Amino acid sequence: MFRYLTVALIILTAVACSNKGPQFVIQGKVADADTAVLYLEKRELDKITLLDSVKLGDTKGDFKFSQPTTSYPEFYVLRLNGQVINIAIDSTENVTVNASQKRFATDYTVEGSEANSLLKDVALAQYKANHELVELRKRFDSKAVNEQEYITEVKSIADSYKETAKKIIFTNLKSPAAYFALFQKVSGYLFFDPYDRTDYKIFAAVATAWDMEYKDSPRAKQLHDYTLAAMKIRKQSEQNLDIDFDNIHEANTAEYYKIELPDVNAKNINLASLKGKAVLLDFTVYQDENSPRHNMELNRLYNKYKPNLEIYQVSFDSDTHLWKNAAINIPWIAVHEAKSVNSELIARYNVQALPTIFLLNKDGDIVKRLLPNDNIETEIQKIL
User: Domain residues for 181?
Assistant: First the structure.
């Protein structure tokens, strides 16, 4: 008897607590849901909390979740069989979501909230980009596209997402959809890069709007701190390095020199070991049809300016055998990145085309990223 009373008290307490304060409602219907369970989760900055669930077969697909709200926007997820619908709640909204079980994450309608209509557009753009990247990866693995084409298409897909996201962000900077759009990722990397000069301005604009509108929000503080940290790193880098920040992905400057890869003899060679020499850092692929001509030009420059100039050439060729055959007779340092275009060097140096060349002075500082119209020999002479 005592046990049943205890359970009853717990239930009554839970009900009483849930009735305190303002509430939001997410309701709707999932077609063809059979016996699937629909979950409501809260996605906070540091944790995911399961709030409620419903067995859709018992309700013929209907669902209704009611939860206490906050004075600032928070993010929630409807999860069904591994598919998710992202929902933003600001105040006491009543949001209606209708979907099908089969295409739950992509074929749904949302009513009662302009922010959630925009958030849906962001989510679908991110889903489209990731789907295209998966298909592109399959084409790359099957050798239907080479490394150069792969990198070019990845950038094109990311840029397409960013164009869609920017329109949504600037529709309303303080909207939850603007925050959500900023932090979407592909393969673990943010589409918008806070260390990029152009993207940083977007982060700063949203951070300012959220500071003013939602000063008590943990997300406003996180965005504020995140943006300030990026600004400090940018300023430190600009003071210490003469880098073209419109063309290079910025990071902690010490990270740039952490390249240690094997040569044709399987000996690991560290870029940092070349400090004291002027270095031409070349990212390339030997499989590209222009590679022989590119290497012939490097060979001319190397013979002319050695021993004052060293070349550290990183190949992203997916075919190791081909790379070895091509690199065996190269006189400069030629190393291989076995991860090919999955290498984090691609993101770290913002490699958008191959070959891409950087020049490092004798102190080990990156002083130039060569652009298509630059005279490579003139730029080399400046660092000798």
Answer: 122-240
